[in-house]
Design brief:
This protein has 145 residues and is mainly alpha-helical. It is 73% helix and 0% strand. It contains nine helices and no strands.
């Protein structure tokens, strides 16, 4: 096993949790051979240095704390190579009230300002859609104001 790759991978994992896809990408960008990278990644998973579940939970918590909705988080997890089984289990395990989340995000951005017209309402809806909230969640907060 290539110790240099191992040290690079552990260094990356010491900063934050990474998915296997992210680690493979970052290490291959540094010019290492794919076979050597896969050997190191297998070792890291076997020794529990890297965990897809921990990485997914970390991403989930981070995005929720920044005011993102489930659709955005799910898409980001998918892009980072997290399996659909893990995404589903994380969604089921976490206790997030998405209606409260969308309300907090909305009030942080718009701070009790009134909707002026349909154009302004559409702009606010697009913002919340970009943040990954469903139409039901968005309409609940817009109709409440």
């Amino acid at each position: 096993m290539n110790k240099d790759i191992l040290h690079q991978a552990i260094g990356l994992l010491s900063r934050r949790e990474h998915s296997l896809k992210e680690l493979r990408q970052k290490l291959s960008q540094r010019g290492y051979e794919l076979a050597e990278i896969n050997e190191v990644l297998t070792f890291l998973v076997a020794e529990n240095y890297q965990s897809e579940v921990r990485a997914a939970e970390s991403i989930f918590r981070n995005r929720v704390s920044r005011g993102y909705g489930w659709l955005y988080i799910k898409n980001e997890l998918k892009q980072k190579g997290v399996s659909s089984d893990i995404r589903y289990s994380i969604y089921q395990e976490q206790d997030v009230d998405w209606y409260q989340q969308v309300a907090a995000t909305y009030h942080k951005k718009y701070a009790d300002t009134e909707v002026i017209d349909h154009k302004d309402k559409a702009k606010r809806m697009r913002f919340l859609q970009y943040r990954g909230f469903s139409i039901d969640e968005i309409l609940s907060v817009l109709n409440a104001n």
